[in-house]
Amino acid sequence: MKRISAVMLLFLGVLLFSCEKNNTDPSPVLQVKMQAINKSSTTLKSANLATPLLNWDVCTMNVSHIEFKAEGKETENAQNSYEVSYEWKGSKVVDLFDASSVIGDIVLDPGIYDEIELEIEAAKSQNATVPVFYLAGTYTDAQGIVIPIEITMNEDFKFEVEKEGTTFEGISDYSALVTLNLALLISGVSESDLGAATLTDDKLIVNTTSNPDIYLKIKSKISSCGDVEYDHHGDDDDNDDDDDD
Questions:
Q1: How many whole angstroms separate alpha carbon 149 and alpha carbon 158?
Q2: Which of 74, 164, 210, 226 could make a disulfide contact with 205, Cβ separation 3.0–4.6 Å?
Q3: What is the mean pLDDT of the chain?
Q4: Strand pairing class (102-107; 29-37)
Q5: CA–CA distances in Å: residue 113 to residues 30, 77, 83, 181
Q6: How buried is 205 (Cβ within 10 angstroms: 0-12 exposed, 13-18 middle, 19+ buried)?
Q7: 96 and 60 in contact (C-beta within 8 Å)?
């Protein structure tokens, strides 16, 4: 009986060691965040205006899908590379002014990744009251009058962000911060466009039916005003993130 007990204890010990080893070697994860930048814009500021022309208070996006695309290889010295694609599916309404907002995690297979692109898709929610993209704040006109402004998009759209020189070693975790530059988003709209806009209940509303000319100018910019920064978790120097120079 003692010999059988010893064998069983040895078997259980090997099994426990194997499980602990597997649990300490998880697949790497890319945590995706998203924020809007330039809450105050002076891009369209008149010479006689003392305050920013546009100030934004609310910015949300209903993110429906994120796709991670890259060239992968098993080791640093491997000769052959292959195309990979991993994805996260939502949807999730993201507050783009909340610095702590996380969209989701993309689980990657271990390996080396470069030529990395993230494709972000925003789509209509099952809840019809939730806009695909919503931006609200105030517009200060040439006379210094402050007018509430709301921009609502209820059309599906997507955009890609990439950063040259980015490489993941595919062992530890990373985070990706996707930024939406609001100054670039509005850069196609002139002060005369806003000054001539139709107001609804003293509010400047922009969508497909209200001030559609302004809407189309903003819509044309949304695919080109994104950027991304990567952070290598556990690396204080962040030397592995990217080499743009």
A1: 24
A2: 210
A3: 82
A4: antiparallel
A5: 12, 12, 9, 27
A6: buried
A7: yes
**182 DSSP 8-state letter:** H
CA 12 to CA 17: how far, in whole Å? 9
Q: State the residue for tokens 């002014």.
A: 97
The domain limits of the chain are 29-232
Supply the DSSP string of 67-120, one letter for each residue: EEEEEEESSTT-S--EEEEEEEEEEEEEETT-TT-EEEEEE--SSEEEEEEEEE
Q: Between residues 210 and 174, which one has the greater pLDDT? A: 210
Instruction: Report pTM.
Output: 0.79
Position with higher pLDDT, 52 vs 190: 190
Q: Looking at the predicted structure, is the pLDDT value of residue 237 above 70? A: no
Within 10 Å of residue 37's Cβ, how many Cβ atoms? 15
Helix, strand and coil percent figures for the chain, each rounded to 5: 15, 45, 40
In degrees and rounded to multiples of 5, residue 222 shows phi and psi of -65, -25
